[in-house]
Amino acid sequence: MSDGIRVASLDDIPQGEGIAIDKAITGTEDDIALLRDTDDTVYALNDTCTHETASLAQGWVEEGFVECPLHSSKFCLRSGEVQGLPATRNACPHRVEVRDGEVYLFPGEAP
Amino acid sequence: MSTSVVIVGGGVAGVGTAAALRSRGFDGDVTLVDPGEFPYDRPPLSKDFLAGGRTLEQIALQQPSWYDDQRIRLINRTTVVALRAAEGGLELSDGRVLSADRVVLATGAAAARPPIEGADSPRVHVLRTAEDAARLRAALVPGARILIVGAGLIGAESASTAVRLGCEVTLVDPVAVPLAAALGHDLAHWVHGLHVRHGVRTLQTVVESFTDRGEAGIEAHLAGGEPARTFDAVLLGVGMVPHTTLAEQAGLEVDRGVVVDSGQVTSNPAVLAVGDSARTRLADGTLPPRAEHWEAAQTDGARAAAALLGTPGPAAAAPWFWTDRHGHHIEGVGHMASATRTVVRGSFDDPSFTVFGLDDGYVVAAAAVDDSGAVRAARRMIDRRVPADPDQLSDPSVNLRALLRN
User: Fold this and answer.
1) Chain-chain contact of B12 with A58 (C-beta, under 8 angstroms)
2) Which of A17, B258, B291, B329 could form an S-S bond across to B273 if both were Cys, CB 3.0 to 4.6 Å?
3) Within its chain, how far is the Cα of B30 from the centroid?
4) For residue B406, what pLDDT is reported?
5) How far is CA A22 from CA B1, B305, B327, in A?
């Protein structure tokens, strides 16, 4: 198992918001959204909403969920499970760790 | 608790009811009857689907496997022709009879076809179903002369799609600034101005009659001394007429919509109604207009499911809608008409920007162009009754989420 990719500092992600990590860095098909919940836990999901094309990193992060900035579909931060229409497919989650204020991403690994 | 529910209609209200029943723990039989091949989402019908950028499968409201996974029996290509509430049964178009403890009417609406002389021409379209959209799309060829009647959401979005496809688009509406009640005058004016800035001709008038000129097109006779103009196709985007026939025949109370209480229950306790066909009577007895929006329909479904289960419904939330046109994403939340003052965050000259509507120190509405984060913040300010300082709202350097935390 790798040590993950250091992709950001925790301070780069405002509480309740997200940042997108380019797929050129993650080596995945989609960019990956790092989402910092209101309790400061950081989660990672594929960035593109499963409904259309919005970036979940631009979404509203609150109490365990991220809300898509376009049509307000919600996804569970921990599992990626879709909570309501119009999206119908779950978002893909990735393992993420915060060590000493640095965020390490494990693309493709289940959380 | 009821053990079998039949939902009539597979729009977002019907499918939303089915989904909410399961997510809230309903274990009985759920049957969904829909006239189409499968339930699909309607907002794309005036946007990507109309432009040919998405297939019907791509706008399905649920994946095909969802119905089995959720144990929802989908009876497609079928309509309900009679509701026999007293016997707990429904008669289907194929002659079958279904029985149910509870029925949820999610019958939706038809596109309005006002009695304009000549509007029965095949060149005159409406837009409500995927079939309507496919038929209209065939007319939206580059250079086609398209008249759109009505600059509400359907008309405006279709105008945007048509001009993007290379059509020569004329958009008429009797109102100088459409959507002013929903977005506030200034933002509505800016949004309506997008049409002209993107090459749509807008006229403040109404169509008095049409004359089909065969191969030459269809002539529209406009009020107010405008010269008659000839078009290849016309789209009427002038509102909807709720499907209430089943309810009327079953003796339910209907008043421009199936009248329901706060739990979506009709005048017959075994029958509920949701979505565009339902009209909610408030606790004080008043009957406001039907909501006619996507999210409202889905929320109706959640309320109906809660009522069927005898559990508390979703918390009241400010109404929200969006519209996409000319490359901009526009959202509105709350009741702008109830605002006594407004403040702008950002600049109309440089989207994104947001208009907040305030009353007595609280946000009561917001409308935004390409600024959905501000609308999500506003929605929470409204729902949680967070006091708001206009100077902070209008300062783009102030983090709106931080205002919610204080």
Assistant:
1) no
2) B258
3) 25
4) 64
5) 50, 41, 24
| CA-based nearest distance B210→chain A, Å | 38
Instruction: Output the pLDDT for position B291.
Output: 87
CATH superfamily of B124-236: FAD/NAD(P)-binding domain (3.50.50.60)
The amino acid sitting at B380 is R
Q: Does domain B4-110+240-309 have CATH number 3.50.50.60?
A: yes
Give the pairing type, strands A32-36 and B320-325.
unpaired
pLDDT tops 60 at residue A1: no
Domains and CATH numbers, chain A: 5-106 (2.102.10.10)
Please write the tens of the pLDDT for every residue from B84-119. Answer: 877 779 999 999 999 999 999 999 999 999 999 999
Per-residue pLDDT at B101? 94
Q: What is the pLDDT of residues B320-348, one digit of tens each?
A: 999 999 999 999 999 999 999 999 999 99
Reduce the DSSP state of residue B37 to 3 states and report it: coil
* ipTM rounded to 2 decimals: 0.88
B326-355 residues touching A, CB cutoff 8 A:
329
The pLDDT value given to residue B225:
84
Domains B124-236 and B327-405 share a fold: no
Cα–Cα distance, B341 to B21 (Å, whole number): 41
A2-41 residues touching B, CB cutoff 8 A: 14-17
Select the residue from A49, A55, A61, A88 to test the B interface by mutation, using most B Cβ atoms within 10 A: A88
Minimal-distance CA residue of chain A relative to B321 = A71
Residue B40 bridge partners (DSSP): B60
In this structure, whether the domain defined by B327-405 belongs to CATH 3.40.630.190 is answered with no
**CA dist., res. B166 & res. B142, Å (int):** 4
Residues 6+ apart with CB under 8 A from A26: A5, A7, A32, A105, A107
